[in-house]
Amino acid sequence: MIDKKWIEGLQTNNPEVISALYQEHKSAFIAFLGRYPLSEVERQEIFHDALMVLKKQAVRGQLQEIKYSLKTYLYAIGKHKAIDLLKKNARSPIWVEDGIPDVAVEDYSTQEESSGRHSQIKIAFEKLGKSCQKVLTMFYLQGLSITEIKEKGGYENENTVRAQKSRCLKSLKDLITKPKK
Amino acid sequence: MDKDQLIEKYIQGRLSDLEKKSVEELMLADEEFRRAIEWEKEVAASLRHQSEEEFAHLITGLSQRKSTSWLKWVAAAAILFFGIASILFLLQSSTPEQLFQSYFEPQPNITQPIIRGSEITTRDYEAFLAYEEQNWENASQLFGMLYDQTNDPIYLLYQGNCLLAMGKFEESIPVLEKAAGQNSDLSIRAKWFLALAHLQTGNLSETNSLLQEIVEAKDAYSQKATSLLEELE
């Protein structure tokens, strides 16, 4: 199980949590990849790619289902990426018994490519008030249910949360369709 | 289960098999429902995309931290240099009026988020909109009315700031005194602006004693208060 602190930090881009995650694991992770014939730059890139996978899974609600610790899972992604890269470059990966599980890593690169619509929504979202940004982040990025948002955000009841969410979505749409200065 | 709840569960991938079937049927039969789902899917995808870009930026920043550390030293040295230069400048020419000008910065609006282009038009919203647009006269009147209706001292703090920004220092004093006397959390912020009002009206002993209180409270304004005190000495 991955600690909630990491998952929430990844979902909300909490700079302290991300910095701690980065500093805590970087050197050991790169040293761990030392068993594969990879360059220093490649190992560094794999570290970043593995962190990106964690981020993508966090905002898709997939990280909560992982049964390993954060460290084991991060290394498992790294191992998968390293073997993938070696195969792609026709370099033969050497099998090493390292106690790190083999995991399948979804390819997110083809999903949700950048589009003009994304940037329209992004600009509009930045113009929303803090309370709207918060409720939409909790719902869409943290995957919190309406009841959880009620408790976390101190709302009176579920209907208040639903009304707030729907008002915010309407404001967001209005900002895109009827932009003002 | 109503349609809103079905959409919520769909977006968060929490539908049961039976609910999945209802969603599929509604998507075919109900145009409005289909559009609502499409829109929320788009919002979810955009927010994810945006958040992932920010994350990538953050980790790139972390990886460059070491290599750019010398740049930080250069920046720190520059800040120190300009800091010392501006303190020397202030020491040379600090009349109370000039000190007021360099220290007064209206309290930022952290109470009512303004959504530009929104249709909300409560008095509260109007007051903060006027405040953010620096329409001090109008904002001051609205905050006064809001305080009369609610007795919430936060409105006095903003009203006091409007008066200071308009140069109505004498008038701002009773308003800020009232705000300072009410709520402990708000009190220090109000005292900071009150100290500035007294500074501008030439009541230096009152300014000093308020600044001392702020320094002792170890609040967000303590640092500013310490440096203003040093300059006054």
Fold and architecture overview:
The complex is a heterodimer of chains A (181) and B (233). With 181 residues, chain A is mainly α. Chain A is built from eight helices and no strands. Chain A is elongated and about 55 Å long. The N and C termini of chain A lie far apart (47 Å). By secondary structure, chain B is an all-alpha fold. The longest helix of chain B has 34 residues. Chain B is extended and about 75 Å long. The model of chain B has no long low-confidence stretch (mean pLDDT 85). At the A-B interface, α2, α3, α5, α6 and α8 of A face α1 and α3 of B.
Distance between the termini of chain A: 47 Å
Strand content of chain B: under 5%
The value of Rg of chain B in angstroms is: 26 Å
Number of strands of chain A: 0
Residues in helices of chain A, as a percent range: 55-70%
How much of the sequence lies in strands of chain A comes to: under 5%
Task: Compute the average pLDDT of chain B.
Answer: 85
Count of DSSP helices of chain A? 8
The tally of helices of chain B reads 12
